[in-house]
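Why does residue order matter? Because the sequence determines the fold. Keep that principle in mind as you read this record.
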Amino acid sequence: MTSPDPPLIIFCMSATVLPPPEAVARSLIWHQGALGDLLMAGPALMALSRHYSRAGITALGHPERWEMYSRSLPLKAVWDSGEARWSHLCRDGALPAPIRELLARFQLALVFSTRPQALLLDHLRQAGIAAVHWLPSFPEMGVEAVAALQARHLAALGLPYVPRPVKLEVGRRPQEELPELPSPGPWLAVAPGSGHPLKNWPLAYFYEVSRSLAWEYGLKVVWLAGPAEGAMLPYLEGLAQAQGHVLLANRPLIRVARILSRCRLYLGNDSGLTHLAAAVGGPEVIALFGPTDPRVWAPLGPQVRILAAPCPQAPCATGRSLTCSEPHCMAALAPDMVLTAATHLLAAPGNNRGEGA
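Structure:
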């Protein structure tokens, strides 16, 4: 096989690499993903922020989720991608003049999505943004970690880096009072839900382990639930009341982040809250995986312990598609296995993570 003509190589590379730092004063980042997806993009976002250290970032996505980065990235604005005006970017026709004027201020746009959206990318270029690039928000196939996948794509654009765990600054002073946590602790945070019921460990198992840890280690328990856990709330309310636990449902994410930063231990499924617990740097994190592959979806961080279901069919998900009819793999992850892992973390020498521990 003969080598390509050298001038052609130079031309292709110059057409696809990122612009130099001095050429970018404002960058636009499109990411509409769920909380976990956005947090998994953290290593890429931090690498871009370091590379373009003089550039402000405008985010286009879900404002509450992007708020998690408000103290960790140079965010100048967060635009809500759910507003009707941004629908013009994803449909045929010319962009309205006000949208073109807004977008023309940027020298660089990065679009995170599952696959390239040609119409969106073309509209951004037509609005006058000189450099527009796509990055995968997660792999559709295969077992490549999200952080590694995005690092590989950015390296191809001329920005090599090694993905590192993200430490979010959540704006909490050491002695700041949090009314949600009525005592100093130490606290165990339990998040029994996720974006899909097949990823959930049985609620009875969560209860068994949390009760044992509270008894053995004097941990106080706070249960965290969001909109996806609406069907669980009656059970969680009764459980929390009977056991003297705290139940926090549908709280603002920034408050949840600060609560997690106060905890000594966190227990949860493959979910956005599990990624948030790992990113705030407070608790030791036990993340429970079944149908989804931790090699792809696990949070980064030295304080993260992954427990995978001992099921010969797991992981069985293809990308985001879960095809099994019952969460047999999660039921096969026995409470004793999780309790043993938690005990090792809590008993480890020098383990004093979380306030009040």
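Residues 245 and 274 are 20 Å apart (CA to CA).
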